[in-house]
């Protein structure tokens, strides 16, 4: 009984883990600022405290592409600033220029941005997931996660094979 319960918990946990890793992996693949994203969504890791306490270093944020004419003050947007992406709040905007500011910064950003530089609008955050994403850039940790995924796949194959051998009429 206890073994069956532990096996079921293990299967559920590893399945959820695999699905989660696949979704985050796909999201990252499609998160290039010039791409359409995954169903219009892109994910990024917060790397500074400029938006705290709203967004903290290590948070993973999801942004959604929006109509750039629908931008409004107080929205949190991600935009291109030279070679990097910045996520700040809109203070003011007109037909061409947008003024932004990080919630934690005492003054507004020195440069205004154009609407074409906007990548998307902030939707929600997953606290600390960005730290995990950074950790996964380390080959050792990445190999560990891949090992877990491979172990899960082998387990599914062996488990299915055992069920077929034990109950050939039940398993299709």
Automatic annotation (TrEMBL):
Regions crossing the membrane: 12-30, 140-159
Origin, by domain of life?
Bacteria
Q: Gene Ontology cellular component?
A: membrane
Instruction: Give the EC number(s) under which this enzyme is classified.
Output: 3.4.21.89
List the GO molecular function terms. serine-type endopeptidase activity; signal peptidase activity
Q: Which residues form the Peptidase S26 domain?
A: 38-83
- Which GO BP annotation is one of this protein's? signal peptide processing
Entries under CDD domains matching the protein:
S26_SPase_I
Q: Where in the cell is it found?
A: Membrane
Q: Which UniProt keywords apply?
A: Membrane, Transmembrane, Transmembrane helix
Recorded coiled-coil stretches: none
Name recorded for this polypeptide:
Signal peptidase I
């Amino acid at each position: 009984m206890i073994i069956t319960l532990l096996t079921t918990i293990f299967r559920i946990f590893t399945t959820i883990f695999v699905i989660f890793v696949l979704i985050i992996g796909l999201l990252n693949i499609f998160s290039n600022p010039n791409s359409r994203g995954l169903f219009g969504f892109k994910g990024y890791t917060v790397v500074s405290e400029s938006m705290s306490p709203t967004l903290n270093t290590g948070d993973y944020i999801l942004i959604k592409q929006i109509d750039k004419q629908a931008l409004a003050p107080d929205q949190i947007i991600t935009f291109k600033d030279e070679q990097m992406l910045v996520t700040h709040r809109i203070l003011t905007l007109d037909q061409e220029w947008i003024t932004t500011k990080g919630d934690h910064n005492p003054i507004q950003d020195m440069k205004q941005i154009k609407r074409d530089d906007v990548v998307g609008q902030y939707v929600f955050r997953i606290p600390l997931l960005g730290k995990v994403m950074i950790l996964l850039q380390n080959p050792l940790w990445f190999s560990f996660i891949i090992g877990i995924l491979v172990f899960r796949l082998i387990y599914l194959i062996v488990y299915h094979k055992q069920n077929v051998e034990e109950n050939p009429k039940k398993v299709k």
